[in-house]
Amino acid sequence: MRLFVAVHPSPEAAGELAAVVAPLRALPGAERLRWTAEDGWHLTLAFLGSVPDDQLPALREGLSQAAAGYQAHRLRLAGGGHFGDRVLWVGLAGQTWALRSLARAVTQLAGEVLGVEEEFSYHPHLTLARTGRGGHPGREERAALRAAAEQLVEFQGVEWPVTEFQLMRSDLGSGRSRYTVVDRWLLRSEEGEWSE
User: How far is CA 83 from CA 111, 112, 142, 150, 158, in A?
Assistant: First the structure.
């Protein structure tokens, strides 16, 4: 199974983002971008790749232990940009340090369980669109990507509590990837207010 660990925005945060993204899809050249489906929006903590079934129990146990070590925290979707000429994303604000810490723990744990050493590099974001597969994106695609990113710079979404993370399966097929929740773990409840 192709697996990754993720956090999902709240329905309210996703709905607000959908309203902001709708006009971006109408920008000149935006029809050439591959837009991610709203029901698949997520914040990846760690991509695990293909995981053999016999390693799932140890992975689940480790993720359960990781969840017990972290408190719920608060995030908001905010700002945006692009990675080169390939990916349009919306960023995060709020207790991003808590998300980074959780991502580091999940990545380290997954590496131990799966026997893979991976250097930790994390830029928390939610992918909104990609340019076409293979080759170099055309001028219209690049212009649409940049124009959409400029429209996102001032975006400040609603705050939501991150109370859990999920182990997700990614099924690749013709068209877009399909994501399925394999398991989920609750984070410890918030104890008072956190400050950045």
Answer: 25, 29, 11, 13, 24
